[in-house]
Amino acid sequence: DTVMTQSPASMSTSVGERVTVNCKASQSVGTVVAWFQQKPGQSPKRLIYLATNRHTGVPDRFTGSGFGRDFTLTISNVEAEDLAVYYCLQYDSIPWTFGGGTKLELK
Amino acid sequence: AVQLVESGGGLVQPKESLKISCAASGFTFSNAAMYWVRQAPGKGLEWVARIRTKPNNYATYYADSVKGRFTISRDDSKSMVYLQMDNLKTEDTAMYYCTAALLNYWGQGVMVTVSS
């Protein structure tokens, strides 16, 4: 199984800052990675698919990058509404596997 | 608009069975692979199962943690997807989400609690 190691587990930021969330796959997954945002009490929402493609309606301050084993979600100019838990997912091979999540909090 | 509505959750005892359902609308269900993802209380997301479409022989795939105990199925005539859960364990306690379109669409989730 492909293990997705996500870091950091949590981070504090301020409105207007730039933050980066990382995911490292235990083996190459090409670009078959997605990123999700989950706010408290809500279902997850897909932000990025195929590593770099922003889903329709997702603000352009969310950017995905990476290939192979290393992937990054960057949020530029963080807004208060971005406070949530973020997850990466590899869907290159069965079983699909999520990272452990990154909780983004306000300082 | 796309809607996924789960139902059938509840409290069951260990080793018992439960079948949860998901009613889909707003897209061509028969053309869409369907998935179940779960989330234990206070924990992260776990992919559980996938079922492909008729042209792909309704192929099914499972997480190692549920293989042999859970069965995903679908009824294209009713736009429904199901998850039959047998021999339930306390560690199966979670919110179960029905999802579609490579996890682009999600239901609101249904809670399954396994406890004696």
List the helices and strands and how they pair.
The complex is a heterodimer of chains A (107) and B (116).
Chain A: E1 4-7, E2 10-13, E3 19-25, E4 33-38, E5 45-49, E6 53-54, E7 62-67, E8 70-75, E9 85-90, E10 97-98, E11 102-106
Parallel strand pairs in A: 2-11
Antiparallel strand pairs in A: 1-3, 3-8, 4-5, 4-9, 5-6, 7-8, 9-10, 9-11
Chain B: E1 3-7, E2 10-12, E3 18-25, E4 34-39, E5 45-51, E6 60-62, E7 70-75, E8 80-85, E9 94-100, E10 105-106, E11 110-114
Parallel strand pairs in B: 2-11
Antiparallel strand pairs in B: 1-3, 3-8, 4-5, 4-9, 5-6, 7-8, 9-10, 9-11
State the gist of this model.
The complex is a heterodimer of chains A (107) and B (116). Chain A is an all-beta fold and 107 residues long.
Residues in β-strands, percent of chain B:
over 45%
| Average of pLDDT of chain A | 97
Report the major sheet of chain B. 7 strands, mixed
Radius of gyration of chain A: 13 Å
Count of DSSP H/I helices of chain B:
0
Compressed to H and E, one letter per element, the order of chain B equals: EEEEEEEEEEE
The class by helix and strand makeup of chain A works out as: mainly beta
State the largest interface.
A-B, 22 and 18 residues
- End-to-end separation of chain A in angstroms reads 36 Å
Amount of helix of chain B: under 10%
Structural class of chain B: mainly beta
Q: What coarse outline of chain A follows from CA principal-axis ratios?
A: globular
Describe the largest sheet of chain A: 7 strands, mixed
The SSE string of chain A, one letter per element, is EEEEEEEEEEE
Number of strands of chain A: 11
From the alpha carbons, calculate the radius of gyration of chain B and give it in angstroms: 13 Å
* Distance between the first and last residues' Cα of chain B: 40 Å
* Number of continuous helical runs of chain A: 0
Strand content of chain A: over 45%
Overall body shape of chain B: globular
